[in-house]
Amino acid sequence: MASPPDTSKTLKLERYNSYLRRLHSTKVINASSKYLFRAALLIALVVILFFTLNYPPFSGNNPNHAHLHHRNFLSASLFTSTAGGAAWEKQVRHSSTPKNPNGLSVLVTGAAGFVGSHCSIALRKRGDGVLGLDNFNSYYDPSLKRARQNLLLKNQVFIVEGDLNDAPLLTKLFDIVPFTHILHLAAQAGVRYAMQNPQSYVSSNIAGFVNLLEVAKTANPQPAIVWASSSSVYGLNSKVPFSESDRTDQPASLYAATKKAGEEIAHTYNHIYGLSLTGLRFFTVYGPWGRPDMAYFFFTKDILQGKPIDVYQTQDKKQVARDFTYIDDVVKGCLGALDTAEKSTGSGGKKKGPAQLRVYNLGNTSPVPVARLVSILEGLLSTKAKKHVIKMPRNGDVPYTHANVTLAFRDFGIQTFHRFSYWVEKIC
Ligand SMILES: O=C(O)[C@H]1O[C@H](OP(=O)(O)OP(=O)(O)OC[C@H]2O[C@@H](n3ccc(=O)[nH]c3=O)[C@H](O)[C@@H]2O)[C@H](O)[C@@H](O)[C@H]1O
């Protein structure tokens, strides 16, 4: 991922920027993977701080506040061309065409999102064709999505502005491009927001997914599909670490229930139509260009602004913990899933034989208490947080997550994931 925009607005940012510059100038970054990782994490922090300081107030509990402050700092005309016109079709074709003769041609839904933008760039960099699709909704400030879109354009990835539920648009894209794969990352995210806007989860995560599968099943050739499920499907499962074979019938949020429904829907389309489907259960992904509705992001903003933060505890006053997973590891998992996906077996809406159906955890395997996350942020920001330790409200959160990633490591040839504790020890 390219470096974020200029962030030198505060002394703290200058400190990190100058540290980064020192790292670059002394070529320490290239010296070892240790320093590479450290630099990436510092960049992550700088980006978090940049958006914290430059974006409108964002409440983790009120994501819709973002659109009230919507500010497009980049002209929309930069990014749009009339859908269906000759120039538009040319951009669609160009973006989807692999540079590598053996490359994939991937439709990435949610390409202006956090994981979508990272995966799109990684695919394009290795020579695959990538076409993005995103509806740029205002769940969080769309100007962050526009900034990611700008970055993707620089990497020759074009994003079609449209919704998953727009069947004619999706059909048209498949008429223009014989996509070999879909990386389906578009979704209504956020666990707690599901209590405020339940319908948005049904519309994106269920109706939108079905619409995409309907188009994919009739496409010729049918693409193989890799899509984002969630660690939240484990819900109230208390067996740790969470393994793919564990029960997932106790969702604690509507978000989790829609992702679980997605896994069942995937089974149906695989069974009836021969679509190759791989679901990836992401565990609390963090990193540069991350989502402002996530705790690490709004904790940072509130600590810097001297505002109190709610730090959740379980009902019996134990620590709440998450298996925070670094974005590069999730990208590795997504590309591994795409590369190992077998072809769909159907054509013209008819199954011709059994097709691949898979589910994998993509998590760090070392849960970190939220209280520890806060103390790390305090150290990095040199600022004491005003902690308000409270019992976790019954709003969809689960007490802890912990992934068993044996299957993903085995099938995707992954050797290791970045340890959260590693960068903490190095930076603090
Ligand atoms: O793995 C997933 O599938 C999900 O991961 C992410 O959800 P979560 O793991 O809940 O991340 P995030 O909100 O950052 O809260 C982090 C921690 O802070 C705690 N938390 C939160 C808010 C608060 O005010 N106080 C607090 O202690 C909170 O209890 C939690 O322990 C994605 O947002 C979601 O879209 C989905 O992808």
From TrEMBL:
Topology with respect to the bilayer: Multi-pass membrane protein
Ranges that cross the membrane: 35-55
Any one of the GO CC terms: Golgi cisterna membrane
Residue span(s) of domain NAD-dependent epimerase/dehydratase: 106-343
The keyword Membrane is assigned to this record: yes
Catalytic activity, EC: 5.1.3.6
GO MF term list: UDP-glucuronate 4-epimerase activity
Origin superkingdom: Eukaryota
Keywords recorded for this protein, A-Z: Isomerase, Membrane, NAD, Transmembrane, Transmembrane helix
Subunit structure: Homodimer.
Name of the protein described by the UniProt record: UDP-glucuronate 4-epimerase
